[in-house]
Amino acid sequence: MNGLKIVAGNANPELAKRITELVVEKFNTKYADFLDELCRDRRGKLAGDVVPLSFEDVWCEAEVSYFPDREVYAHVEKTVRGHFVFVVQPTCPPRGVPRGPEKPGPQTVNDIVMELLLLVDALKRASAERICAVTPYFGYARQDRKTEGRVPISARLLANMIERAGTSRVLAIELHASQIQGFFDIPLDHLRTDHLFARHIQANHPEWLEDLVVVSPDIGGLFRARRVAERLHAPFATLAKRRFRGGDLEVLLVIGEVRGKKVLLVDDILSTGGTLIRAANKLLEDGAREVYAACTHGIFAGDALEQIESSPLSRVVVTDTIPQATTAAHPKVEVISVADDLAEAIIRIYLGLSISELLVRGR
After folding, report:
1. C-alpha R_g of the chain
2. How far is CA 350 from its chain centroid?
3. Which CATH number is correct for 4-192+339-358, 3.40.50.620, 2.40.37.10, 3.40.50.2020, 3.40.50.1980?
4. Sign of the C-alpha dihedral computed for residues 261, 264, 266 and 270 taken in this order
5. Do domains 4-192+339-358 and 194-336 have the same CATH topology?
6. Which of 141, 126, 131, 140 lies closest to 170, judged by CA?
7. Which member of 5, 26, 124, 241 is catalytic?
8. Would you say 204 and 255 are in contact if contact means Cβ atoms under 8 Å apart?
9. CATH top-level class for 194-336?
10. Active-site annotation holds for 241
11. Do 162 and 143 form a contact (C-beta atoms < 8 A)?
12. Domain assignments of the chain as residue spans, ordered by start
């Protein structure tokens, strides 16, 4: 199809390909009438002459590799002149990417960021009409303000770099702080995951819903927890905590009633698991019967999986904004996909349709 292309680096190519498959499927079914109109406008064909869209029409292969000295090389292998290109590249730690002495690959978040910037620059110089950076997980988002003197606002710097590279729009999921949208001077569409978690729990764990309380691990995430609570028709509560320099954390008190209840902890990022485990311990001390967790971005840094396995958490649900091929086999971890929402958002952005129902909204 002339006009829409999806390309990806090494961060999460499986998600990018699944998104492309769903885009093709939706265009051939739900948005078939729009496809007819586009073909008539751009090719002069009649509706009956329209050929169904294929994966190869939308997917744009790109080579993103590394020189021996670890410089990044990016080459977009299909023409993108005049196209609206979506670059699917969460700025997350690389996971599951083959690498070794003979074939170097990304090793850090910064490598993944550089891949994104170089892909955007390559597309801009190849005369792409518009470029949307699809960053399901937006790295550096926790460094969104100055907490002490002489420190950077790293999330703002990353936003500036993405924009300056030539991006005309950004699509993200559950930013750590909603105000990061204001770091960009280009449109940013901010999708939410509360409906995904609610739907998964209602379909697969209806037993959780009896005497359930949805809890935020901190006051800053209360809005996120409240959205899930409303969808599950459950009350919500929060924890007050204090974080010390170096990452140490103390959970001070539970604000709300959890005694005799089942608890669903809702957070945006699961990195080492320390916050969730301390929160679970505090909730059980205050009389909670069982504790589950739902976190959008499962980083699982260091020995997080081992810590979760030995923790009082009964189950942890995460999404595939970050690759979870190995994590999915963990006995306490369940993975749900954001591919359908991203495919829907990409189509609506491309066609100029509203995506308000998919966005994070405050009330």
Report:
1. 21
2. 19
3. 3.40.50.2020
4. positive
5. yes
6. 131
7. 241
8. no
9. alpha beta
10. yes
11. no
12. 4-192+339-358, 194-336
Consecutive 10-residue averages of pLDDT for the chain (363 residues)? 89 98 95 73 52 92 95 97 98 80 88 98 98 98 93 97 98 95 97 97 98 94 95 95 62 89 98 94 96 98 96 98 92 98 97 88 50
Q: What is the pLDDT of residue 38?
A: 64
What are the tokens at 8? 């990806």
Q: Look up residue 284 and give its two tokens.
A: 């059980």
User: Considering the entire predicted model, what is its pTM?
Assistant: 0.93
Q: Which two tokens stand for residue 6?
A: 């999806």
Give the position of tokens 């059980």: 284
Would you say 160 and 338 are in contact if contact means Cβ atoms under 8 Å apart? no
